């Protein structure tokens, strides 16, 4: 999917334009927060050390609901001291011709995102391996 002119929305721009959630958006956010609380019970019960990754769309931060849900995930990760990779903040330029639709990456898009994520995940995995030896 090719971006049209001015479709790319950076994290900083999204913070300025989205503002306060409306009533229906608040309901979606509350449901998401409840799901995160349930997830946390399982994380603690199974003694898992998760690494969360925020999500993006073809125009990075162009979906208000996703932007708000990413914000909740960041709060959740901070509250419970979980690792999080803020992909929505790391991508600073458009990923042109990288999506087959608004949310699914093609091979090029997956490769571009992997180039961002791999070094960060590798560091975390190596830290864990070094601490267990």
List keywords for this structure.
133 residues; mainly alpha; Rossmann fold
Can you tell me about this structure?
- This protein has 133 residues and is mostly helical.
- It has a single domain, classed as Rossmann fold.
- It is built from five helices and two strands.
- It has helices spanning 11-18, 23-45, 64-79, 87-90, 107-132; strands at 51-53, 83-85.
- Strands 1-2 form a two-stranded parallel sheet.
- Strand 1 (51-53), helix 3 and strand 2 (83-85) form a beta-alpha-beta unit.
- Helix 2 packs parallel to helix 3 (64-79).
- The chain is globular, with a radius of gyration of 16 Å.
- The model has no long low-confidence stretch (mean pLDDT 92).
- Overall helicity: 55-70%
Placed side by side, the strands forming the largest sheet appear as: 1-2
Number of strands: 2
**Apparent shape:** globular
Listing every helix as H and every strand as E from the N terminus to the C terminus, the arrangement reads HHEHEHH
Rg of Cα set: 16 Å
Low-pLDDT residue intervals, each spanning 5 or more residues: none
Q: What structural class do helix, strand and pairing data support? A: mainly alpha
State the end-to-end distance: 45 Å
CATH architecture: 3-Layer(aba) Sandwich
CATH topology: Rossmann fold
């Amino acid at each position: 999917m090719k971006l049209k002119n001015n479709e790319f929305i950076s994290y900083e721009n999204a913070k300025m334009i989205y503002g306060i959630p409306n009533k229906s958006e608040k309901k979606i956010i509350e449901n998401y927060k409840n799901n995160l609380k349930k997830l946390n019970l399982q994380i603690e019960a199974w003694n898992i050390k998760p690494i969360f990754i925020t999500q993006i769309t073809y125009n990075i931060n162009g979906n208000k609901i996703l932007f708000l849900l990413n914000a909740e995930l960041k709060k959740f990760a901070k509250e419970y001291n979980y690792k999080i990779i803020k992909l929505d903040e790391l991508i600073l330029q458009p990923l042109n011709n990288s999506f087959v639709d608004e949310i699914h990456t093609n091979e090029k898009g997956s490769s571009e995102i992997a180039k961002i994520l791999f070094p960060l995940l590798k560091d975390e995995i190596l830290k864990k391996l070094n601490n267990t030896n």
